[in-house]
Amino acid sequence: MTFDVGHLWASSFWAGMAGAWIIMLAYILDRCIGDPRWIPHPVIGMGKAISALERIIRARVKTNEGLTRAGLLFPLLIAGGSFAVTWGVLLLLGLIHPIVSGIAEVILIATTIASKGLRDAGMEVYRHLKQQDFVAARRALGMIVGRDTAHLDEPEVVRGTVETVAENIVDAIVSPLFYALIGGAPLAMAYRAVNTLDSMVGYKNDKYLHLGWASARLDDWANWIPARLTAMLLITGAWVMKLDAKGAARMVTRDARLHPSPNSGFPESAVAGALGIRLGGHNVYHGVSSFRAYMGEPTRPMEAEDIVRTTRLMFWSAGAFVVLCFLTVLVVRLTGGTLLWQ
After folding, report:
1. Sorting pLDDT into bands at 50, 70 and 90, what band is 9?
2. Which pTM does this prediction carry?
3. For the residues of 190-222, what is the DSSP string, one character each?
């Protein structure tokens, strides 16, 4: 993807840095305005496409073996289609003017990030807890987790919020930025499609065990590197913020792989160690109790302020990763290399 403006700019060193500027501006845009409800979001279109494809497949395929094969269509058509449509739109806009394409790239990448939305969701729970409105706090938590929240006490509400914010640092921030660094908005949008697929059909239950296996597996693969990068960023952030960086590193080493997800345990164990709290334990889903392995050591009782500390760790890690992206592009340019989207 070319972003040069005129021959002079095209021949300059900084023209090759356009990808870094675009990623930085996209993060700033999301950090400032998030996803306003009055602006159509690409994920809504992805969700409708996934639902339509599922209806078509189920109307035509009746065996588990057939559903397993058909499951490959989800990542091929939805993720592949998201990549192709985004690439095509940017190509057409680039014919108008490279600046138009660059602005569109910033906006599109920003839609794949959800740092402000994640922070706002966590802080809404925090505000209700500080006001001693536990009913509203449980309700707010219920909007961002799948577990039953109606009877949770304050420490359990805090735990659920911290776990959700920590886990989603990967899905909502680091992973989309990671793929934007490699392949610009098209690859970032393809990642968002994979993540949306996992949230809609990637369940290991009777309904989606066969049809959703490919989507779930691809989401695990897509987040493998970003999850581990996130753990390192959180450990570094804990050191900068004068939290327990050694504890964060120790808990990642000891507990990260205890999580049922191959990726979620890395940010959750890092946050648990940094804050000196214990995550995991018993959760109730649709009236059925489920136990998730403990992560971290309870050096003190959990408190509402842990939500604030987690969001600060999130923003530090996100900002550090944006700087890391910028430096990566700079090094690539200085060594005469190029990225896939340049």
Report:
1. very low
2. 0.91
3. HHHHHHHHHHHH---STTTTTTTHHHHHHHHHH
